[in-house]
Write a structure and sequence with these properties.
The chain is of the alpha+beta class and 332 residues long. The protein has 8 helices and 19 strands. It has 3 domains: 68 residues, Roll (Structural Genomics Hypothetical 15.5 Kd Protein In mrcA-pckA Intergenic Region, Chain A); 80 residues, Pseudouridine synthase, CATH 3.30.2350; 158 residues, Pseudouridine synthase (2-Layer Sandwich), CATH 3.30.2350. The strands form 5 sheets. Strands 7, 8, 9, 10, 11, 14, 15, 18 and 19 form a 9-stranded mixed β-sheet that branches. A 4-stranded antiparallel β-sheet has the order 1-6-3-4. A two-stranded antiparallel ribbon has the order 2-5. The protein is globular.
Length: 332
């Protein structure tokens, strides 16, 4: 037996209308295609209040409700987990998510998530995305730190989601790459698809006509170069799953300590220092997760109609790596 979780999506479609099953696969990357198809076939997906077929062409303005079966695990419970609240009002909050924290409960992560912490911290959260994702408007990867928006009520949630869909939500990330970006600023434009053999990964689409490919564009600006590494500012124009990680890896500069796309999951002090200068006793782990931080978000508050900008300070592990790079890896 399973409980159900209903997600509501206000469709924003650029260009030609797309099939319902393809649209939902794009909007819900954490949900398998087979589960989406089963939900459509079981009439658990409605468009503007009516069930329809997978071949329905989604148009801007369509209101889509998806009822997904959830495992027999109950809804997430409040947990007294400290939160770094960067901003809060009656409608929304902005949290500085730590690295290592999963955003919402799922198989294998039923406690210790951001959702568990939010339910303890706030009296009210939007239920637009169901009981398993209260307040969650967008996501960050487990090992990405930084700013994440939380909606306290449904109207604000829908309007924030609309800003994301219209690309009127401006996000700035900071990253350290393994490899030197040769241009001071540039953009990477390459469509992204799910990896053909590893479900947890994404990949650059080899065929531009692949119907599952999602257009993606990432701007970057070099902040500081080192021998073998780059500290950069990244501004994604689109918001695809793993977009920054995939795009930077595609130009030969994967994010530092990104095991999925760079092959290594940590950085030691001895990795950056000249060979033989750091003894085993003095060695230390500087970073044990991907060097990606959601630094700043800028948007127009949907209720106050004022532009606001919220910044999350650089985490300590980032600072440790940058200190070591400035000490040992300055350009000659």
């Amino acid at each position: 037996m399973a409980s159900s979780d209903t997600i509501e999506i206000l469709a924003r479609v650029r260009g030609e209308a797309v099939r319902l099953d393809q649209f939902l696969t794009q909007q819900l990357p954490e949900v398998s295609r087979s589960l989406i198809r089963r939900a459509i076939d079981a009439q658990a997906v409605t468009v503007n209040g009516e069930s329809t077929k997978a071949s329905y062409r989604v148009r801007t303005g369509d209101v889509i409700r998806v009822r997904l079966d959830q495992p027999t695990h109950g809804p997430p419970k409040p947990e007294d987990i400290p939160l770094d609240v960067l901003y809060e009002d009656d409608n929304l909050a902005v949290i500085n998510k730590p690295a290592g924290m999963v955003v919402h409960p799922a198989k294998g992560n039923w406690s210790g998530t951001l959702v568990n912490a939010l339910q303890f911290r706030f009296q009210q959260l939007s239920r637009v995305n169901g009981d398993y994702r209260p307040g969650i408007v967008h996501r960050l990867d487990r090992d990405t730190s930084g700013v994440i928006l939380v909606a306290k009520e449904e109207t604000t949630h829908r309007e924030l989601a609309s800003l994301f869909e219209q690309r009127r939500m401006f996000k700035e990330y900071l990253a350290i790459t393994a490899g030197v970006l040769d241009r001071d600023s540039d953009y990477i434009e390459a469509a992204i698809v799910r990896h053909p053999s590893v479900r947890e990964k994404m990949a650059i689409a080899e065929d531009e006509d692949d119907e599952d490919a999602k257009d993606a564009c990432t701007f970057y600006e070099v902040v500081e170069r080192f021998r073998g590494y780059t500290f950069c500012r990244v501004l994604p124009k689109t918001g695809r799953t793993h977009q920054i990680r995939v795009h930077l890896a595609s130009v030969g500069c994967p994010i530092l300590a990104d095991k999925a796309y760079g092959g290594r999951d940590r950085v030691m002090l001895s990795d950056l220092a000249p060979s033989g200068t750091i003894s085993p006793e003095d060695d230390a782990t500087l970073l044990s997760r991907q060097a990606l931080h959601a630094h700043r978000i800028r948007f127009r508050h949907p209720r106050r109609l004022e532009w606001m900008e919220v910044t999350a300070p650089l985490p300590m592990d980032f600072s440790r790596v940058l200190d070591a790079l400035r000490r040992f890896r300055r350009p000659r």
